Structure formats: structure tokens, C-alpha cells
Amino acid sequence: MKSGTLSTLLSRGAIWGFIVLELIFFTVAGEFFSLSEKAFMDVDNMLLLFKQSAPIGIIAMGMTIIMVNGNIDLSVGAIYALCAIVLLDSMTWPMFAGLGDMVIPVSWVLALIVGAALGALNGFIVWKTGVDAFIVTLGSMLGYRGLVFMYNGEQPTSHLNWTLVDFAEAQFLGLHTATWFLLVVTLIIWFIMNKTVHGRNAYAIGDNKTAAVNAGIRVGPHMMINFMIIGFLAALSAVVFYSESGSVNPNDGELYELWVITAVVLGGTKLTGGAGSIISTFGGVLAIQLLRKGLSHIGADTETVNLVIGLILIAVLFLDRQLNIKGKEELKV
Amino acid sequence: MAGLTKKDLGQLFARQGILIAFVVFMIGFSIANTRFIDPDNIMGVIRSSAILGVMALGVTFVVISGNLDLSVGSMMSFSTIVVLDLHDKIGVSMAIPTMFVMTMALGAFIGFLVAYLKLNSLIVTLGMLSAIHGLTLTYSGGKNMDIADKEGTWFKVFGQGDVMGLPVPIIIFVVLAAALGLLLAKTPFGRSVYAVGGNGVAATFSGLHRPRVVFICYIISSFCVATAGLLQASRSLGSQNTVGQGLELEVLAAVILGGASLLGGSGTVFKTVIGVLILGFIQNGLLLVGLQFYVQYVVTWVIIILAVWLDIAAKRGKLWSPIA
Amino acid sequence: MSQQQPVLRLENIVKTFPGVRALDGVSFDVQPGEVHALMGENGAGKSTLMKVLGGIYQPDEGQIIVNEQPVNMTTPLEAKDHGILFIHQELSLATELSVAENIFLGELPRKSFGRVDWTKLYAQTDEILSMLKVGFNARTRVGELSIANQQMVEIARALTHDARAVIFDEPTASLTDAEKVVLFDVIKDLTDNGVGIVYISHRMEEIFHMTDRISVLRDGQYRGTVETAKTNEEDVTQLMIGRKLDLSREALAHEFGETALEVRGLSCGNLYQDVSFHVRRGEVLGFYGLVGAGRTEIAETLFGLRDQSAGEILLNGAPVTINSPADAIAKGISLVPEDRKGQGLVLGMNCRDNITLPQIDKLTSGPFVDQGAEIKIFDKYKDSLDIRTPGWRQTVGNLSGGNQQKIVIGKWLSMHPDVLIVDEPTRGIDVGSKSEIHKLIRELAAQGYAVIVISSEMPEVLRVSDRIVAMYSGRIMRTFGSDEVTEDNLIQAISGLEGAQVAS
């Protein structure tokens, strides 16, 4: 089925072509519409692009595993917010009062554990009840958000620790801290997906679950591990972001799942599972972030950005379908 | 019929489990706070369930036909804002039809994407949730909408009026439920919705026009959303542009509670109405017991998971998933 | 064959499910190096037995003995460890992964930290592939292989464990003759090495060609084992159904009417080219050929599911274009599709609603459905087709295969088409119901329908057809009149062995 390879190659390469197109478009449009004096493709701006891609990007790596596996996770935004609260609030807990700045790694670890635990709960429910992942995470999207509000009502939770902020704002070897986290996470997840048994099993399960089960692969624990990974990554993303920002509103992270899924699907991962690549997801993340930056560079407001992102997702779905139609072979059903 | 086996009883309990749990809840809430069974309170619950209920009627069609609609919440915000805005600009009698047309145009767009372009309805309506939200914010300029002359307009009859002692929203809900219920249960179109949702390929092989059926379901859904927007706008005569936020999940919870399968092919309007009422009473009960609105989120979460789980468990005959 | 120790022996296997005794004391054995056929109608218990052997079910009573040791297998992997390997009818491969990853699915060789040992993986895969003499390599994506090659990957996967017994379930269903030869070679290699083969198939020609013994199941009971060389088709069929089957043609003398459907030069890309034929009222035109010959695709075109790229279709003499199934139905063409459950029925709906679905728009009184009229239609076909169901409310998914097929047929008969196309009328249906449906098809012709029957079973197509179109690779090789056809020249035609095409 040669057309299969061609369209895979096309869709893999396409995302990078799209990014180049965006760069060109916004650089040119920026000359006419931009309010700022600086060019779009300025070095600092591009470095900032990577840093700003980190929150969505870190989670998107986890979402890639989840989607390749044949699942989906709509609760990542809520997990993100909840872990952010745990991070910031725990630094003020009386029991840690004597630690000084050493409370930072403690709070980090606490937030990460909470993320992994929330993910584990999702995974456990999917495993043991057999309810489809999108319903389970649709529910926990709501439920976890409820927990977020229960923490502090509708008030923001804040805490500024200047050591932490300094660390988060720093640049090592020219790249921001957040960027480093993004790159390391990408590398690790890439390794898992391509070089480990767990990763290859993820492709197998997403491609043909029955075959995987009959081959003796333990699908239940596998899925639960994947949900723990994405929960952990959602927490990590929150940790990276809120270390610098210092204040979280209960509605933060809203619609993150949309952005993440858009990035992953844009990068060529199939909704039905069994196919997807970390590198392409990375491309998808950059493409989305580039879009956000570009649009605001030429003066569009957040409402327009939301509108555009929603429409992009639909356009990507359409293109994905077009590339997979086999022409004359298709029945008109 | 052979004697009831343990499996039959299990299935019976699973299917009626929701009802049983609901009865238990009602009793529990009544004991905790006697205001719960006060007739005024009950009427109030039914009235405020009307808006959610109207939306759930439309989503029932979409779900039975085998799809989802996550955009109904932001679409409802859109409708509310638009009708309030147009009310002051072109008068009530023009504003209402115009809003309906605009809302249904959005529904038609979604229907086109899902039915004719055959895109995945979960992702499409998730994207549209964001897009319509952006659209609403752009339209309203980010500001809330208010009607200038709140007293002088007859617009408020929809949301606040009474006809022979019954609140208008309830009347509208009941009438719409009856009409759509008949449509679904007794007409050829309704039959085709079940066929398309049960097995879309077989429906096509039987000569049914699958894209058209799915498309019409989205039109019906957007009509219901427009109605809900009308009721909401008329009730409060002013609104934030996020009024419908999160409603898509509550609507879905109601539909699921009513026993419709998210895979398509089963469910009825009547069952959805029951689901809406159950959800409404549970939320009311929680409020009366003194819990905040966000606790409802957690409760709704548990309800959705339990309801779908029991439904799946009943179908496969085993409580726990057989996956290793 | 000397009586050596059997590689596999089953003793009195009993397996019950609620209300059904699926296996009722089944015993047989498999000798090393033999090809042992397992036959039986659908529902006889073959697939349950295979699941017991494959470790998916555990027997309630009885023993499985492998090389004289009783074993208890609770998972497919355990069965493999005992040397019992299973090649399924539906391939269970992950099409996006490579050949190597599929062969070692669930058993990828590991290094530290959960990493895959790729060197070892490819080395072991190459070893197995060269043993099977296949043309593809370990890194190819399985999705790019042909069905026959994918089956080879399945076989290779089975061979990662030392085999004592290999079970093949309808292995030749999707293979060309050339590919079958390769498969039979592989089987021969296995038997030469002392492996015992269990061969499940309905295809008498193959069974009599290459098996040593035949065991028959009926209604969950073991009915006997015979040596292939000492028996014939009739006797085996008698074991399977308990009565002799009349395999001769149902000759119903009747006249043929005018031409209802004519097709001229119809082509559709690579699927079929330059197809021409006609069907008269009262006639059954059979289409015989292998999977992939293009027959179903022609039916899909006639039913509006597929656009042709060239050629004409004439109904009752007038040229028509058919744009959709609804259009085909309106023009008097009905299709009983190949995939009864996936295409023919809405399994969750009841019997009555399934039958009336295509005409639901017309069965109305006012805006509502006329349920009384619906029930009348259901009753009519329940009687005339002898559909066994407790009532119209029964969910179609609960009926047996034969009765489900009758519901589909009833659905289309109620539309009173001019042309009825039936694609694989008795696939997966027990012998008793098969015979009923064949009779039915001949009766329909006698009533004046123009019928097209597509079949992959030679006895069936010979039995019901007045004329037979033999197709190979998208082309009509020859159209046979009823007196011209023999099994040999029919096989030749559909294997592409004829020289020039012979016009009808």
C-alpha cells in the first residue's frame, strides 16, 4: 500500500513546511501590522517562542503517548491547575516553615506526585471499569476542576519565592529554564516511544488491541502507566510555569486540553491510535505557539486567537481525512 | 420467559440503579433539609432545569445518531448575548428570529463538518467550543450584555412569565419535549436516527441518507440551544458572555443519566427528561445541604462515571472490565 | 502412518456456557506429521474447541494432553509455551509496526531499562523469515504487505515458539491459487518436521487434497474420525449434518422473461474492467471467482455505492445512472450484502424494524409510522421465509446466522425489486439453512425475479445458477451456460488459466 507511506511522509513533513509558512507570513505581515518596532524573527523572540511553548509542549508529549495508545485525556488542564495550587500553596504550609529555600524541591515533588496520582486515578478507572477514556477524562475534567475550586473558592492562590523565580527566569547556555525542561522531556519521551518495550507496546495496543491482548501484553497496567505519565507531565508543566508566575487562578489551564490535542493532531498523530511521532508533535507545538505569537504580533486579541485555533483544529481534521482517502477505492458510505 | 437468573437481576439493577440511587438521594436530602420537598422548591428546580432540559433534548438526537456535541455550552452563550444585543438594536420581534437563524447557522456548519465531511464529532465540537467562545467575545467586545429598558419590554415573558400558574419556561420545555419525543419515537425520521446511530453503514445500505440524518440532528440541537438562549436571556434580561460555560458537560451528564448510550442507537427523549430532572434535584439537594457550586462538579463527575460504567457493565454482563 | 505418540490428545472435553453445552465430551488426537481436518457446521463447536486449545477458555471437564502430559492452559501464551500454535482466520497484526515487532509482539527481546534489543530482534526475525522463504524483510511495515504475506507473518509469529501442533482456521479464504501453493508448502515443511496440523475448513476440495484424517463435530459432540483416503464428500457431509444432502441442482422448470438488467463495458479503475453481462427475469446468474476478482465491486456499483469509470447500465432496456443506494432501490435494484452484520442489519434494532427500514418513509399514516402495516409486512416474510424468532420485538442480534440472513432477504423482497443481487448468500451459515436459502433463490427466480448470486463456494454456485460468470482479476473470463459448465473448466476460468476471454 504505497499510498500509505507517501501520505505518512507527507503528513510528517507537512508540519515543518507549515511552520516555515507561518514564519514567512508573520514576518511579512508583521512589517505592516505590528505595533512593535522589532521584527518577528528576531533572535530573542524566537528564544521566547521555545520558552512559551513549554507549558503546552510538555503536556503534548504525554498526550502523544496517550493518543498513540488509543486513548485521550481531557483532564490535563484541570490537573495542571490543581498541581499549580499544590505547588504554590505547599510552600506556605507551616510544616515546611523551617526549611527555608529547601521547601522548593519538596513542593515540586509534592506537586508532581499529585499529578501522577490524579493521572493514576484516571488510568485506574479506564482500566477497571472499561469505560472509554474520553468519557472518564471528560468527567475528571469537571471533577478535578471542582477540586481546584474547592481548594480556595474563586480566589487566586499565590506565593512568590524569589529564589524560585530567579531560577525559573534564568537562562542556561542561552536557553530559558523552561525550554530546557521541554527539550529534556521531549528527548525522554522520544526514547520511551522508540526504544523501549513499553513504547512499542503502546503502538501495538493502539493499532490492534485484541492482537496485543492475545500476545500477552498487559493492556490495563500499560494504560495506567501512560495516564500517570501524562498526569506527571501536566504537573511538571505547571511547576515550570508557576515557579515563575507565582499566582494561579482557579480557571487557569482552561481549554489546555484543546491546545494540546490540536498540537498533537497537527503533528500527525492519528485520533484512532497506533501512529504518531514525538518529533512531529514537537513540530505541532511550535506551530501552534507560533500562531499565537504571530497573531498577537499583528495585533489580534485573545478572542480571535481562540477562534483561529478552533478553526485550525477542524482544518487539520479535514486534511487528515483527505490524505487518507484512497480515491476510487472508497465506498460512498 | 425463563426464570430470573442472577445475571438478569444484575442487569435490572444496573439499568434501574440510577433510579434507585436517585430515590435514595431524594430521601436523604429531604431528611437533611425539609425545604427540599417544599412544593415551591420543587417548582423552582423544575423551572431552572428547563433551560438545561431544552438543550438536552437536542443533544439527545445527536447522541442517538452516534455523535457528540460539546459546543452547546458556548453556543448557548452566543445565543443569549446575541438576542440581548439585538433586542435593543432591532426590537424584540426581529431579534428573536434573527438570533435563531444565526445560532442554527452555527449548527448547520457543525452538521456539515460532521455529516458531510465526516470529521470526528468529538474533536470538531471541541474546536467549535473554543471558536464560538471566541466569536461570542468578539461580538460582545468582551463586555456583558444588558437590556436598556428592563421593565418596558414584553421580552421577559419567556423567562419569567406565567400561564395559568405554570411558568412559561416549563411550558416551553414540556411542549418541546412532547414534540421532539413524538418526532423521535413515532416518525420515519426518528426511526432513521436510531438506524444511523445503531449501524450507519447498514443504514446507508438500506437506502437511508445518512449525512442528511446526522445534519438534521445538529440543526435540531442548535434550535434547542437557541431556545435555551432565549429563555436564559429573557430570564435575566442581561448576561455575562460566559453564561453557558460548562453546560455541555451537564447536558451530557443528563443524557447519560437518562440511559442513552454514547455509542449511539439507543435512548429516548423521555429518558433524557428524567435524567435532566435527576440532575437538577441532585444539584438542588447539594445546594440546600450547604455545599458550594463546585462541589456539584465533583458530584456530576462521579455520576457520569457511575452511569456509563453501569450501562457498559450491564451490556457485557460483568461489573469489572475483563482486560488483564 | 504408524501409531506413534500423538502430539496432542483431547479427552472428553466438556465446555458449557449458560444454557448451552458447547462441547459435549469431545475426544480426538493429532499424530506427529499428520494433517488432521476438523469439520463441522457453524455452531458445531469448532471455534469453542479451538479457544480451549488456544488457552482462551478452560474446559469444565476433560483433559488436554500434550506429548503424554496433561496440561492446563489459562492464557494464549501458555498454550504457545506448550507448543500449540494458532493461525487465526482474522489476522491479528498491528499494521503500523514492522514485521519483526509483530512476530515478537509481547515478547520483544529486552536490554536493561526496558529497552528493546533491536539487534537480537532483527537477527531472530531474519532467521524465521528465511526458513519460510518469504520475499519481504524484517523491517517492512506490515500494513504494506499483501494479505497472503500478512498471513506468513502470522505463521512466522506462531513459529517463534517450538511447535508441536499448529492449528489453521480457514487459511485459504483470501489467497490466490499461487499463494495457496506456498501455504501448502509451508504446511508440508511443518509436517516433515513432525509437527501435527489441525486444519479447519469448509472447502472440501482442499480437505480431500491434503489431509490425512478428518474429524467431525456436530452440535458440540464428536461424531467420528475417518481416514481421508477411505471416504468421500457425501459420507463426510452425512457425519456433519446427520443426513445425506442432495447436492444436485434444484431444477425448477420455468421460462425466462425479458432482460431486466444489462451491463455493457463497465469498468472501475483497477477493480474491474470491461464487464458485460445481462440477466433476464426468472433467471439466476451466478458470479464465481476468488476474493479480489471484482464481483462484489460490480455489485456495489449496481447498488450505487461506487461510481463506475466507464460503461453503461441498462434497466429494462433504458440506460440509467445509479448514484446511491436510495437511487438503486428506487430503480428496482436490491442488494443482500456480503457482510450480514456490518452492512445488512442494525443489530440493536428489532426484527420488524430491520425489515421495514428501506421503506419506512412510505409506511406512514400522516406524519407517523404506521406500525400496524409494519407488523403485517414482518408477519408475511416470517411465514414465507420461515424465520425462526419468538416475535417481531426480538433484537436481531440475538438470532442465528441463518435467520439473520433471512431477515435481510425478507427486507429486500418486501421492496419488490426487479433485480435482486445476493452477495455470498450462505457465508457462515449451517448446512441445513444453506439448503433452505438455495431453494429460496430458485423459487424467487421462478416467481420472476432477476437474480444475481455472487459466491465463492463452487457447489453453491453450481446448484443455484442458470448461467455462471467466471471472473478473474477484474475481468470476465467466460460466461457459462448451464450445460457447459464443469467443475474443471470453471476452476480453470477463475484461476486465469484460460487463454483469451470468451464472450458470453
Give the end-to-end Cα distance of chain A, rounded to a whole number of Å: 22 Å
Q: Mean of the pLDDT scores of chain B?
A: 86
Strand percent estimate of chain B:
under 5%
**Second-tier CATH architecture of chain A:** Orthogonal Bundle
Average pLDDT of chain A, rounded to a whole number, is 86
Q: Please trace the helix and strand order of chain A, writing H or E for each element.
A: HHHHHEHEEHHHHEHHH
Largest interchain contact: A-B, 53 and 52 residues
Which percent range describes the beta-strand content of chain A? under 5%
Overall CATH class of chain A:
Mainly Alpha
- Residue runs with pLDDT of under 50 for 5 or more positions of chain B: none
Query: Ranges of chain A with pLDDT <50 over ≥5 residues?
Result: none
Q: Could you describe the 3D structure shown?
A:
The complex is a heterotrimer of chains A (333), B (324) and C (504). Chain A has helices spanning 2-33, 43-68, 76-90, 103-129, 133-152, 162-169, 177-195, 197-207, 209-214, 219-245, 256-266, 278-297, 302-324; strands spanning 157-158, 171-172, 175-176, 247-248. With 333 residues, chain A is an all-alpha fold. Chain A has one domain (38-320): ABC transporter involved in vitamin B12 uptake, BtuC (Orthogonal Bundle). In chain A, the strands form 2 sheets. In chain A, strands 1-4 form a two-stranded antiparallel sheet. A two-stranded antiparallel ribbon of chain A has the order 2-3. In chain A, helix 4 packs antiparallel against helix 10 (219-245) and helix 7 packs across helix 8 (197-207). The longest helix of chain A is centred in the first third of the chain and has 32 residues, at 2-33. With 324 residues, chain B is an all-alpha fold. Chain B has a domain at 38-245. Chain B is 74% helix and 2% strand. In chain B, a hairpin with a 2-residue loop joins strand 2 (162-163) and strand 3 (166-167). Chain C is of the alpha/beta class and 504 residues long. Helix content of chain C is 32%, strand content 25%. The interface between A and C is medium-sized, with 29 and 33 residues.
